[in-house]
Amino acid sequence: MDTKYLEIIKAPLITEKSRDREALNQYSFKVSPKASKIEIKEAVEKIFKVDVLEVRTSNMPVKKKRVGRYAGLSNRCKKAIVTLKPGQTIEMQ
Question: Is 93 part of any domain?
């Protein structure tokens, strides 16, 4: 497996909402902000060996963070929701 695919897919997003989407064959991932939908589709297909029907992406807003008197911003992040062909699944912990 090529390491460029592992740089595109950062981590799975496991939340209550993403657990509900698994029944619809949809899985959520945190991805690189520079990744396109085509790159995300290729990465998911190569890493998990599944067939992807659709990829939806959204750029998450940057939030203000504060630690004591020091203020800053959270890191930029992109989220991808991937729909698989019926009958295929991805095992997430």
Answer: no
